[in-house]
Amino acid sequence: MKKKLEKLEKKEKYWILYDVGNSAFVLLVSTIIPIYFKNMAQAAGVENSDSTAYLSYAISISTLLVAVLGPVLGTIADGKNRKKPLFTFFMMMGVLGCAGLGLPKSVIGFLVVFVIAKVGLGGSLIFYDSMLVDITTDDRMDEVSSHGFAWGYIGSCIPFIISLGLIFGADAIGISGTAAPMIAFILNAAWWGLVTVPLLKNYKQQYYVENVSAGGRQVVNRLAEVFGEIKENKKVLLFLLSFFFYIDGVYTIIEMATSYGKDVGISDTSLLLALLFTQVVAFPCAILFGKLTERFQTSRLILVCIGAYFAVAVYALWLDTAWKFWMMATFVGVFQGAIQALSRSYYAKIIPKEKSSEYFSVFDIFGKGASFMGTMIMGISTQLFHTSKAGVLAIAGMILVGFLLFCLQTRSVENRESENHTEEPLTEYRAKRTE
C-alpha cells in the first residue's frame, strides 16, 4: 500500500516552488503572449492564419532546439554536482528572455526573443524534472509531482492577475497600452526568478554517476548506452512511445488554445478570463489526482486523462462561441495538471535514479518532439486549409494513438508482473548518495 503523503518536506516545497515560478511564463505563453503577438502582427498587416502559423513555427523551433541539446546536457548533468549549474543557466536564460519580450518592435524580433525564452524554460525543465528523484521517495512521487503542477497553476495566477490589471487598466493607471505588456513581462520574469531562489540555495544532487566525462566521445557512448537500455526495456520504451502521441495533444492544446480561439472569433477578454479559470480549476484537480494514486494505479489514472483529452480535441471542432470555449477551458483544467504530473512521476519510478538526467532528457525528446509535431501540424494545416480545425482533427488522431499504445504498455507490464518476472537492472552503475 502506498505511503500516505502527510506533510511536504522542505526540499519538496523548494522543488515545488520552481513549478510556481516557471508556470507564470507558461501561462503567458498560452494567454497574453499569443494575443500580444497577434495584435502586433495584425498591426503589421499579417493575416490571422499566417500569424497563427508563425507562432506555431516559433514554438516548434524552440522545442526542436531543446530536444537536440537535451540528451547531451542530460548526460553531462548526471555527473556529480553538475545538475544545478546547468539548471541555473537555462533558468536564467528563460527569465531574461521573458523580461525582454517587450523590447522588440518587429514580428521577427519578437519571435527571436520568444524562442530564447522558450529554450531557457525547456532546458531548465529537463534538469528540474530529474531532480524529483533527489528530493523525494518513490512512494511520494505521484503526490509531490501533482503538488508541483497544482501550486504552479494557482501560484501563476498571482502575477497573471496583476498583468491583466496593468493591461486592461493601463489608461486608468496612466501608462500606455504599449508599456503595460512590457511591465507585465518583466513582472512575470521577476516572479519566476525570485521563487526559484530557495531551490537554488538548498538543492543537493543525491544520485549521480561516478567519473562522468564531458568529452564528446564519452557523451556519445553514454547516450548510445542509454538508448540501448531503453530499447531493451519494453516497459520504458512503450511508455515513451505512447507519451509522444498523447502529450502531443496536451501541449498543442495548451500552447495554441488562445490563438485558435481568436481564429474562431472569441474576444481577448473572454479568452484571458477563461484560461485564468482553467488555472483555478487545475489546482484542486491536480491535487485530487495525486491523492487518487493512493487508491488507484497511476497507469489507470493516466488512461482516464488521455481519454479526456481526446474528448477535448473532438469538442474543439465545434468551438465557435465564448461559452463553448469556457466549457473547453473547464474540462482542460480538470485533467491538464494531472496528466503531466502523473506522466512525470510514473516515468521517474521506472528509470534508474543515478541516470535520471539522461533518461529525462530522452523523456524531453519525446515530449518536445510531440510538441514540435503538434504545433507544426497546427501551423501547416491552418495555412493549407485556411482553418485551424484541420489541425485539431489531426491532433485528436494522435491522442487516440497514444491511448492505444499506453493500453498496450499497461497490459505488457501487468502480464510480466503476473508471471513474477523480475526486471533486469537497466544499468551497471551504482547510485551514489552524497553525505
Task: List the SSEs and their pairings.
Blueprint: H1 10-30, H2 32-43, H3 48-77, H4 83-99, H5 107-130, H6 132-135, H7 141-168, H8 170-173, H9 179-202, H10 216-232, H11 234-263, H12 268-292, H13 298-316, H14 322-349, H15 356-385, H16 389-418
Helix pairs in contact: 1-7, 1-9, 2-3, 3-5, 3-10, 3-11, 3-15, 4-5, 4-9, 5-15, 7-9, 7-12, 7-14, 11-13, 11-14, 11-15, 11-16, 12-14, 13-14, 13-16, 15-16
Give a written overview of the molecule:
The chain is an all-alpha fold and 435 residues long. The protein has one domain: MFS general substrate transporter like domains (Growth Hormone, Chain: A, Up-down Bundle). 79% of the residues lie in helices and 0% in strands. The protein has helices at 10-30, 32-43, 48-77, 83-99, 107-130, 132-135, 141-168, 170-173, 179-202, 216-232, 234-263, 268-292, 298-316, 322-349, 356-385, 389-418. α3 packs antiparallel against α15 (356-385) and α13 runs antiparallel to α14. The longest helix has 30 residues, at 48-77. Residues 420-435 have low confidence and may be disordered.
Summarize this, please?
The chain has helices spanning 10-30, 32-43, 48-77, 83-99, 107-130, 132-135, 141-168, 170-173, 179-202, 216-232, 234-263, 268-292, 298-316, 322-349, 356-385, 389-418. The protein has 435 residues and is mostly helical.
Name the features:
single chain; 435 residues; mainly alpha; Growth Hormone, Chain: A; 16 helices; 0% strand; globular
Class from secondary-structure proportions = mainly alpha
Mean pLDDT: 81
Question: For this structure, what is the CATH class?
Answer: Mainly Alpha
Uncertain segments: 420-435
Oligomeric description of these chains: single chain
N-to-C CA distance: 30 Å
Q: Given the C-alpha coordinates, what overall shape results?
A: globular
